[in-house]
C-alpha cells in the first residue's frame, strides 16, 4: 500500500504542483530571502578586490571581512529555531529580512573598514535566519510528492542571488572606485523591504498552527495548500497525531501539549536523544559539515583569484569567467530540483560528491601545472582550469548544494524540526566561515593546487559518510514514516514484532 502510494506520488509530482500553484507561490516568496544571502556571497567576491584597493586593507583583513558574516550567522541560526517556534515561521522570515536590511545599509554606506565589518555582522544574523527558516517553511507546507522540489527552491534562490551578485560586480565595477563597491553592497536594501511586506501575504505553516492548538486555522491553510478536501483532512489528522492532539478534537483552539511548543527541545536533541534522533542529528550535522568542507566556498567566493592564478589577469576577464560560475551553478540546481523527487536524495548525494572529487583532483593537477609550467603550456592549462571549475560547481549544484537543505528540513521529528534545523545551519555557517577566512592563507601555505588536492581528500571521506549515514527519504511522510527511515534493521524488526 505504502509503495503504491509512493509510486503514484512520484508520477503525479508535476501534476500536483501544477494543480496547487498556491503552495508553489508561497515557497517562492519564502525562498526569496535566500536570494539576499546568495547576492551577498556573489557580490562580495568582486567587491573585496575594490575594497582592498580603496581602503588599503591587508589579505588577512579581507579574509576576516569575507568570513565574519558566516560567523555571525551562528547567532541567527541558533536563535531562529526558537524564535520560529514562538512567533511562527512566517514572521521569522520578516525578522530575517529586516535584520538583513540594516546590515546592507551599513555596508552600502561603508565609511570605513569598521563600519563594513559591523554591517557584515548584522547581515550575518539575517543570513542565519534565512538559511534556517526558508527550507523548513517550504517543507512544512508541501506534500510528500513535491517536498523535494519545493524545499530545493531556497538553494536555487541562493544560486540566483550569487549570479546576480556576479553581474553586479561586472556592472558596478565600471563606476568610480569610491562608489562602485558601495553600490554593489548597498543595493540589497531594496529587495529586503519588498520581501518583508510580501511575506505578510503568505499563510502560516499549518504544522506550527497545530503546535499552538489552532486546529481550525491549520485546517483552513491546508485546504488552500492541497488539491482536495480529502487530502487536507488526511494531512491534518497526521499532524494532530504527531502533535499529540486527539483526532476527535475539532474546536477552533485546543490545548496542545507543551512539549510541542519548543520546551525541552535542546535537551532531547543534545542531552538525552533517542537512538533514532541521534542518527538523525549525525546525518544533519554531517551533510552540513561536508557541504563546505569540500571547498565550494573557496571556488564561489574566491573565483576571481583562482582565475587570476590561471592567467586571466584583467578584472573584466575574471568577472566574466565568474559569471560563468554563476550560470553553471544556477543551471544545475534547476536540474537538481527536477530530479530530487524522481531520483532521490541519496543517489544525488553520491553522484554529486563523485563528480566533485574528480573535478577537485583535476583542478589541483592543472593549477600545479600552471605554477610550474613554461609559458607555452599555459593556454591549454587555463582552459582546463575553467573546465574543472565549472564541472566542480556543476557537480556540487546537482547534489550537495540543494539536497542538503531538502534533507535537513525533512528528517527531524516535528517538535525538534525548527531547532534541529537551526543547529544544522549553525554547523553550516561555522564551516562556511572557516573556509572563507582560511582559503587565502591555506593556498599560500600549501600552494593553490595543494589546497584543491586537500579538498579532494575530504571529498573521499564525505562519500563514505553519505553512503553509510544518509538513508533515502524520498516520498516519506513527515509525520508518520520519517522516523522509520533512521531505525536500524534490528529496531524495525523489534517494532514489527511488538506491533504483532
From TrEMBL:
UniProt entry keywords in alphabetical sequence: Coiled coil, Membrane, Sugar transport, Symport, Transmembrane, Transmembrane helix, Transport
Membrane topology: Multi-pass membrane protein
Cellular component GO terms held in the UniProt record: membrane
Coiled coil: 215-242
SUPFAM superfamilies: MFS general substrate transporter
Compartment annotation: Membrane
Residue stretches making up the Major facilitator superfamily (MFS) profile domain: 26-474
Spans through the membrane: 21-40, 60-79, 91-111, 117-137, 149-168, 180-202, 319-340, 352-371, 383-407, 445-468
Entry-linked InterPro entries: MFS_dom, MFS_sugar_transport-like, MFS_trans_sf, STP/PLT_plant, Sugar/inositol_transpt, Sugar_transporter_CS
GO terms for MF: carbohydrate transmembrane transporter activity; symporter activity
Gene3D superfamilies for the chain: MFS general substrate transporter like domains
A Pfam family of this chain: Sugar_tr
Family the entry assigns: Belongs to the major facilitator superfamily. Sugar transporter (TC 2.A.1.1) family.
Designated name of the protein: Polyol transporter 6 isoform X1
Organism of derivation: Canna indica (Indian-shot)
Amino acid at each position: 500500500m505504502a509503495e503504491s502510494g509512493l509510486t503514484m506520488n512520484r508520477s503525479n509530482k508535476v501534476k500536483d504542483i501544477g494543480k496547487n500553484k498556491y503552495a508553489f507561490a508561497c515557497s517562492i516568496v519564502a525562498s526569496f530571502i535566500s536570494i539576499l544571502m546568495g547576492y551577498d556571497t556573489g557580490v562580495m567576491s568582486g567587491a573585496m578586490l575594490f575594497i582592498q584597493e580603496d581602503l588599503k586593507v591587508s589579505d588577512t583583513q579581507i579574509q576576516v571581512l569575507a568570513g565574519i558574516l558566516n560567523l555571525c550567522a551562528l547567532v541567527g541560526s541558533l536563535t531562529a529555531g526558537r524564535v520560529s517556534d514562538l512567533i511562527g515561521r512566517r514572521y521569522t522570515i520578516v525578522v530575517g529580512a529586516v535584520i538583513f536590511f540594516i546590515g546592507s545599509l551599513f555596508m552600502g554606506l561603508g565609511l570605513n573598514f569598521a563600519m563594513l565589518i559591523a554591517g557584515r555582522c548584522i547581515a550575518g544574523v539575517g543570513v542565519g535566519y534565512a538559511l534556517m527558516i526558508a527550507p523548513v517553511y517550504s517543507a512544512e507546507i508541501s506534500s510528500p510528492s513535491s517536498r523535494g522540489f519545493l524545499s530545493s527552491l531556497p538553494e536555487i534562490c541562493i544560486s540566483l542571488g550569487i549570479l546576480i551578485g556576479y553581474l553586479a560586480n561586472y556592472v558596478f565595477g565600471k563606476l568610480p572606485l569610491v562608489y562602485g563597491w558601495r553600490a554593489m553592497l548597498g543595493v540589497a536594501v531594496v529587495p529586503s523591504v519588498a520581501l518583508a511586506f510580501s511575506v505578510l501575504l503568505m499563510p502560516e505553516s499549518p504544522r506550527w498552527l497545530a503546535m499552538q492548538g489552532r486546529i481550525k486555522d491549520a485546517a483552513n491553510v491546508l485546504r488552500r495548500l492541497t488539491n482536495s478536501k480529502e487530502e487536507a483532512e488526511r494531512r491534518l489528522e497526521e499532524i494532530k497525531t504527531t502533535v499529540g492532539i486527539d483526532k476527535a478534537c475539532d474546536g477552533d483552539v485546543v490545548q496542545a501539549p507543551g512539549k510541542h511548543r519548543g520546551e525541552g527541545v535542546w535537551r532531547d536533541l543534545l542531552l538525552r536523544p533517542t537512538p533514532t534522533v541521534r542518527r538523525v542529528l549525525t546525518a544533519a550535522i554531517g551533510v552540513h559539515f561536508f557541504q563546505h568542507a569540500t571547498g565550494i566556498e573557496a571556488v564561489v567566493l574566491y573565483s576571481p583569484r583562482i582565475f587570476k592564478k590561471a592567467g586571466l589577469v584583467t578584472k573584466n576577464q575574471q568577472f566574466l569567467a565568474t559569471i560563468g560560475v554563476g550560470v553553471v551553478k544556477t543551471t544545475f540546481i534547476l536540474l537538481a530540483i527536477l530530479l530530487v523527487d524522481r531520483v532521490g536524495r541519496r543517489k544525488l548525494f553520491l553522484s554529486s560528491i563523485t563528480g566533485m572529487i574528480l573535478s577537485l583532483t583535476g583542478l589541483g593537477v592543472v593549477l600545479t601545472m600552471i605554477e610550474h609550467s613554461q609559458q607555452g603550456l599555459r593556454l591549454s592549462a587555463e582552459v582546463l582550469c575553467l573546465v574543472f571549475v565549472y564541472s566542480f560547481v556543476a557537480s556540487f549544484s546537482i547534489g550537495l548544494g540543494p539536497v542538503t537543505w531538502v534533507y535537513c528540513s525533512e528528517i527531524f521529528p516535528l517538535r525538534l524540526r525548527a531547532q534541529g534545523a537551526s543547529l544544522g545551519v549553525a554547523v553550516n555557517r561555522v564551516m562556511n566561515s572557516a573556509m572563507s577566512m582560511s582559503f587565502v592563507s591555506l593556498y599560500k601555505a600549501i600552494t593553490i593546487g595543494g589546497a584543491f588536492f586537500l579538498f579532494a581528500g575530504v571529498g573521499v571521506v564525505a562519500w563514505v559518510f553519505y553512503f553509510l549515514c544518509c538513508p533515502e527519504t524520498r516520498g516519506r511522510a513527515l509525520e508518520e514514516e520519517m522516523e522509520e527511515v533512521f531505525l536500524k534493521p534490528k529496531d524495525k524488526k523489534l517494532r514489527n514484532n511488538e506491533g504483532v
